[in-house]
Amino acid sequence: MIPEFEKFKGFSAKNLPKDEPLASGHRACQGCGEVLALRMVMKALGREVIVCNATGCMEIITTPFPQTAWNVPWIHVAFENAAAVASGVEAGRKVLMRKGRIPKRHIDILAVGGDGATGDIGLQWISGAFERGHDLLYVCLDNEAYMNTGIQRSGCTPYGAMTTTSPPGKESFGQVTWKKNIPAIMAAHGIPYVATASPAYYLDLMNKVKKAALVKGPAYVHIYSPCPTGWGSAGDKSVEYARLAVETKVFPLYEVIEGRYIISRKITKPKPVSDYLKGQRRFRHLTDEQISYIQNRVDTEYEKIVKLAEMS
Amino acid sequence: MAKRVGIEVSIAVAEAVRLADVDVVPAYPITPQTHIVEHLSEFVANGELDAEFIPVESEHAAMSCCCGSSAAGARTFTSSSSQGLSLMSEILYHPGPMRLPIVMVVANRALAAPISIWNDHQDIMVQRDIGWIQTFAENGQDAFDLTLHAFRVAEDRRVSLPMIVNIDGFTLSHVIEPIEILSKEEVGRFLPPFKPRFRLDTKKPISIGPVGVPEVYTEAKVAHNEALKASKRVIVQAWKEFANLFGRQYNPVETYRSEDAEVILVTMGSISETAMTAVDAMRDAGQKVGLVRIRLWRPFPGPEFKKAIGKAGVLAVIDRCLPPGAVCGPVGAELRSLFYKVPGAPKIFSFVAGLGGRDVTVDRFKEIVEKARTYAKRRPVENYEVIGVREQ
Q: What's the rounded Cα separation, in Å, for the pair B59 and B358?
């Protein structure tokens, strides 16, 4: 077990931090699940953190110069390289503390990016940072497409989903590939901590982020982030969809602690996937046959996680 | 005390970085830059340099790491070349406007295709407009001195900009020369510890690298440009101080036997030394030929250049870069632009030579001067000419 976890008792509804390291007044869309998740991430981390943000929705909405929504030190360089920038920040602080030029004080380093910045273009930089073992936390806010540029498909776009670059048509039913399993890729690096989280389970999310920050070395949290604009869902339904994704096994919640899989929320009485799909415009063109394919695949994928958890 | 030793130029550069007590070196190997980062990693491994050597997975990550460590307030160095420099190109545009004083030595090398590991200036000319201060070394001593100078200038609070020292790949990087290596104490007198203007600090949070909406983007670009232009004063002042301390004087534009010259060769980098030999030979033959070497490429020292050429009527500019489809080599174009509609401007002829490691010999310089003289009487057909192309 990871020794740092012992001193952390976990957040509870009664002792939630009141401080807002990510201030309100940013420019996110109504009902944005991503900024909600990010707010919880920051609440969990507090103010002793340096944020390295990849280009994407969260960067754009929080820092239109001369405004900033960040109450903590924050840097953005480019789309793909948040993990490498964070590596530099971590190494820089480490050597400056060693040389006595800045006070010896632990500050968490958070690299954060969307699903495109994490699973597609930025995969190499994260892989490099994890392989080198920097003491940093990477959070992916996964809204399942390139929302910032107008809803184009990414490697994390789910099977069958309609985006502007995976449109259904006479020859197509939308996204033709299955969602890339980024948490598994991250876990394959053998880093101490990997977890999936959802803003619908906010205490679970905050506890996982805090644990990831406590871990010495690289840690990764993959957070499911509903996007009303991109998904064609109602703004007031984001938390509902985030919960449905878990309850239908579409997005299982689990941790991989030192290689051991632990399911955070076992789904014993799953709701049908169609409950989750309906009400989202991106899935409305799907046939019953396709929905049934998705149901089967979701069940199979969930079983894999259960098996991994049983094995460890 | 300074010690004169026979040393490979790359090792001398690494020595300069060690003497600068650099904090972070993110690096990815590429020929002919490798010896620089190899020696730095050895220094760190042997405890001779207290720094974080980050063996990144690509040059793009190297420059990204540099941005992070510099923003954290650490003295930051990296080195690159050619394809690798091109790979980091996207990130090279960031530290300038972000005012991060990263120092990089570029071992200049050709760009593919065809693949070539040998020297020319095509890699750095692609990065002409990244908004870094850029100097060119002629020999090993220059490479050592200019590296120290780069830290001093880049980190000066009036400047706070990234800086590149260009050294020719192989012809400098892999050559052993007698170089005066300064002592730690001497370097200490020239280069103060890095005290950043700002840093990522939870005690005083700042946001670095925000979105530039149309209302502010132009102003941000202009502010960067103004800062780059204004850096010249500090660059020159630091060189003067260096000369006072160690006796070696550098200038934005340097001349060799150019007074009373009718034809002036214009060069950058290590071919300048061969050019000096060529000038001597032509002077011995009674020709009024001189040389002007551009030491500071960015910000371009326009007034100094105009002064340096005196009353010469003909400039023969040598580019080691062939921009396909362009009307002129980059240095040639810069100078034509500088003298456009200037009364009494010299005639400027643009030559491309020394691509992909081909030697530019004394005879080639003679040929260039000869051609420039001819073209001064009879306009050339082309805007520029590639020298020494084999016909078969």
A: 26
Contact B200, B98 (CB under 8 A): no
- Tell me whether residues B91 and A87 touch, CB distance under 8 A: no
Nearest to B328 by CA among B375, B371, B382, B383: B383
Among A107, A256, A78, CA closest to B66:
A78
Q: What is the CA radius of gyration of chain B?
A: 21
Query: pTM here?
Result: 0.97
Coil vs helix vs strand at A185 = helix
| Complete DSSP assignment for A52-97 | EE-SSHHHHHH-BTT---BSS-EEE--SS-HHHHHHHHHHHHHHHH
Q: What is the largest CA-CA distance in chain B?
A: 69
Q: Hey, what are B55's tokens?
A: 């063996």
Could you tell me the pLDDT band of residue B353, with boundaries at 50, 70 and 90?
very high
**Rounded Cα distance, A310 and B5, in Å:** 66
- Name the DSSP class of A117: I
Cα(B280)–Cα(B25) distance, rounded to whole angstroms? Answer: 42
Task: Tell me if A140 sits within 8 A of A111, measured CB to CB.
Answer: no
Amino acid at B205: P
At B120 the three-state DSSP class reads: coil
Chain B residues touching residue A91 (CB < 8 angstroms): 24, 26, 52, 54, 65, 68-69, 74
Residue tagged 């700002």 (tokens): B198
> What pLDDT score was predicted for residue A60?
97
Average pLDDT score over residue span A57-72: 97
Per residue in B134-160, pLDDT tens?
999 999 999 999 999 999 999 999 999
Identity of residue A294: I
Name chain B contacts of A54, Cβ cutoff 8 Å.
none
Q: Which residue has the tokens 């994390």?
A: A156
B110 touches chain A (CB under 8 A): no
Q: Closest Cα to residue B91, out of A55, A112, A50, A59?
A: A55
Which residues face B58 on adjacent strands? none
In Å, how far are A95, A110, A181, B361 from A254, measured between CA atoms? 35, 20, 13, 68
DSSP string, A234-290: -GGGHHHHHHHHHHTTSS--EEEETTEEEESS--SSPPPHHHHHTT-GGGTT--HHH
Q: Is the pLDDT of residue A270 over 80?
A: yes
**Best of A26, A81, A127, A138 to mutate (most B CBs within 10 Å, chain B):** A81
Q: How far apart are CA A140 and CA A38, in angstroms?
A: 10
* Burial class for B116, CB neighbours closer than 10 Å (0-12, 13-18, 19+): middle
* Structure tokens that stand for B218 in this block: 């132009």
Query: What tokens does B127 get?
Result: 């990065």
The closest alpha carbon to B253, from B318, B329, B306, belongs to: B306
Q: How far is CA B72 from the centre of its chain?
A: 26
